Amino acid sequence: MLATSFLLKMNAPVNFVRRLFGLGHWSLSAAVKKSVKEAVSYRGAFENGIAQLARRDHVGGVICGHIHSPAMREIDGVGYFNCGDWVESTSALLEDFAGKIELLTHFQRTFETAAPLPIAEVDEITRRLGRWRR
Predict the structure, then answer these.
(1) HSE on the CB side for 58, CA within 13 Å?
(2) What SS3 state is found at 99?
(3) Engineering a disulfide at 85: which of 68, 108, 124, 128 sits with its beta carbon 3.0 to 4.6 angstroms away?
């Protein structure tokens, strides 16, 4: 609601500048609302379309990242998993060895600031996860 109030307040200065350039009235808040609605509609259509394709191909779930909105939900009996992205939502999907998928958000470490793990620590983690191969 705060964002809507801000956009409504911004209509006056925006239209003042538009009048200076000989342009007609334009609603900033309506334009933003329309844009957001279109984005939400597009995302919903994408998610439903992916679920429909999964059902057609007898697949129990889909994992994707095309739309940068992290999500884990069921759509008409199909598991829908979207990893989001590492920049804006700082999110990722994590699957354990039992096949359980978890959505991680708001990482504490970032690629820009995180120091690399020492190779011995990587080896130990790999060994504990049962993936150690020589």
Answers:
(1) 0
(2) coil
(3) 68
Q: Which residues lie across from 95 on neighbouring strands?
A: 101
How far is 128 from 108, CA to CA, in rounded Å?
A: 23
In 3D space, the residue among 50, 70, 71, 69 whose CA is nearest the CA of residue 61 turns out to be 50
Please name the residues in contact with 11: beta carbons below 8 A apart, sequence gap of 6 or more. 27, 28, 29
Decide: pTM greater than 0.70.
no
Would you state the pLDDT for residue 92?
86
Cβ within 8 Å of residue 125, ≥6 positions away: 117
What letter represents residue 33's amino acid? K
The two tokens of residue 62 are 């889909």
Three-state SS across 43-71? HHHHHHHHHHHHHHCCCCEEEECCCCCCE
Position 50, amino acid: I
Tokens of 44: 């919903």
